[in-house]
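Q: For a teaching session next week I want to show students how multiple molecules come together into a single three-dimensional assembly. I've collected the sequence lines for a complex. Could you give me the predicted structure tokens for the whole thing so I can convert them for display?
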Amino acid sequence: MKIKVAQFGLGPIGLESLRLAAAKPWAKVVGGIDIDPAKIGRDLGEWTLTRNLRGRTVCRSLDELPAQPDVVLHTAVSRVREAFSQIEPMARRGISVVSSCEELLFPRWREPKLAERLDRVCRASGARVVATGVNPGFVMDVLAVCLTGVCREVRAVHVQRVVNASTRRASLQRKIGSGLAPAVFRRRLQAGQAGHAGLKESLALIAHCLRWKITRLVETGDALVARRDLRTPHVAVSKGQTCGLHQRAEASVRGKVCLTLDLTMCLDAPEPRDAIQIEGDPPLHLVLPGGVAGDEATVAALVNAVPRLLRAPPGLRLMTDLAVPCVA
Amino acid sequence: MKIKVAQFGLGPIGLESLRLAAAKPWAKVVGGIDIDPAKIGRDLGEWTLTRNLRGRTVCRSLDELPAQPDVVLHTAVSRVREAFSQIEPMARRGISVVSSCEELLFPRWREPKLAERLDRVCRASGARVVATGVNPGFVMDVLAVCLTGVCREVRAVHVQRVVNASTRRASLQRKIGSGLAPAVFRRRLQAGQAGHAGLKESLALIAHCLRWKITRLVETGDALVARRDLRTPHVAVSKGQTCGLHQRAEASVRGKVCLTLDLTMCLDAPEPRDAIQIEGDPPLHLVLPGGVAGDEATVAALVNAVPRLLRAPPGLRLMTDLAVPCVA
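A: Of course. Below is the structure for the complete assembly, covering every listed component.
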């Protein structure tokens, strides 16, 4: 019995998820959903150049799908409130959801009441909901938690991620403020209108797994300024303009900073990597030289989570509740 | 409600597991079991210098424990047949077991029928059984599987572990053949009387998770020879004598070598580390410089698995079936 999958949100990540799901022998794609009128009615096979998606068209809503999916891949929003409003109708019908919504990684952090409600809906209908990705969802949270599994005791967790945006797609190069005046990008970062979403959720997930009560959480963001002219196939940045961002979240437990997440994404970043230090017994140090490629790995994380999610009990789940991650 | 824990096997690893379990606020140690007449009757509190174990004595069998445990920490044997005969009576009573038995990591590899029987016993009684450790159980298998969770596709997995035995306890320095004539130690390795147990099981676990059918599995082991005199607080090795071992397991899938595990444990090993390469999409490279300390981390892995095991459905489980590893 194949798992029936539908895609909600047909942006670049959604289209790639759909393509990957269509390539999995255990999945049968039943269709795609988007609210953009320009996309509705398009043939998914032609659009994605994927033979076994031919004849499936983009629908406006769940009701228009030719069959009820077992799982929806939800790649539409970053904000947890919007995600709840889109996902709850699915969960009410017993449809499980794997979402890329960054804030849904640990939904109780911002929206404990909505999270509790969605959990109740899921338990009543038999649906499961989880959010994942590469970051948040893996390199700055789940992988760090996994490492602590061989520790007798953990005193602090520090994670660094350095992404060389020069090697990444155009949208990431723009997302990090490339070419903007630093003052302009700083204001956007501080207003929460730009930057990486989900850093607080990564931190809250680690703290939850370690049963640590966060007493103080500080997130800061700053623009990085080009020291020379930079050029990629997608953007040109003059010396003195923004060429990336630096974000950092720190959590204190009983007055002591015990969790730090440090994220740099910029053009020409030297030594791109993901790194984790566990201060504990034993202490552990992990490095992924080069780092994990964001979009590609996020699409994989979403699709790979499907079979594991369906083996978990109904409810609103955390990635760390599911079985050990694995390519599906 | 605390989880009632008993220890089966009171060697060095068992005593450390007991001490760690006694330090966890969620666990209540009910006692220890060993078959060695010299140990029976000893006070666990005095023996382990652990205050909250005082008054608990070493028993000969399950029946003599003052209360039925929820979970037994089983640290007694490496061979899966012996483990089955010790664990089955526990599982019949509905007692769950976390075992350090290396071959039990993937019991179907050597003993598919016994594994099926134990699984049936567990399902009937409500018990759960799993085996774990740092190796096998984490660095050469579970961690590699976990990494593939962000891959669209995996073509090959290669793991290397280099342990500098000079910094480790006496028993490991002896286990790797230190001071023996290389010809003698080679014979022991080839007869399966020496060396690291569980390499094939690590490999079989990875293959299982990736749904790869192993068509050929080769394991080789060799003595490493000291090029100069070596001395630790525990052993003295002359030039030309054995100073460690090199073991390697390779699995082929459809005629191609797709999984390799390479283990070196020797005195004065340069650059001790754990490293994983995933050939896939994206390719991934992970390094733990210095590596994960074996015994200390194994004890942690055992105790940390307890709460996760009890949340899994009854049955004979694999580490990769349980939730993401985490310090408990």
